[in-house]
Amino acid sequence: MKTVTLYSTDWCPFCVRAEQLLARKGVMPERINVGTAIHLREEMVRKSGGRRSVPQIFIGETHVGGFDDLAELDRQGRLDALLSTP
């Protein structure tokens, strides 16, 4: 299974929902808190192509987007394949 990285903050309800969806898939993401670390927020913005909102989710090197994007992949039946592709 690929590494999942979740850029988040402590007060973000969509971050919690993303973690819950991933947990249902048996995935524990690497959580990077950008709430107080400016350099990590800058890293997130750079890696996500300018997105400033949280969560920003990466599966391996693939930028998924935010929670709505992750949930849409799941609804389409594409999330499991993305998680399991080597």
Low-confidence stretches: none
Question: What share of residues is helical?
Answer: 40-55%
Number of helices: 4
Which whole number gives the mean pLDDT? Answer: 96
Major sheet characteristics: 4 strands, mixed
- Please provide the ordered H/E string of secondary-structure elements: EHEHEEHH
> Strand order, biggest sheet?
2-1-3-4
The Cα radius of gyration reads: 12 Å
List the helices and strands and how they pair.
Layout lengths: L3 E5 L4 H12 L5 E4 L4 H10 L8 E4 L2 E4 L1 H9 L3 H6 L2
Parallel strand pairs: 1-2
Antiparallel strand pairs: 1-3, 3-4
What can you see in these coordinates?
The protein is built from 4 helices and 4 strands. The mean pLDDT is 96. The chain is an alpha+beta fold and 86 residues long. The chain is globular, with a radius of gyration of 12 Å. Helix 1 (13-24) runs parallel beside helix 3 (67-75). Helix content is 43%, strand content 20%. A 4-stranded mixed sheet has the order 2-1-3-4, with helices on both faces. The longest helix is centred in the N-terminal third of the chain and has 12 residues, at 13-24.
List the keywords.
single chain, 86 residues, alpha+beta, four-stranded mixed beta sheet, 4 helices, 43% helix, 20% strand, globular
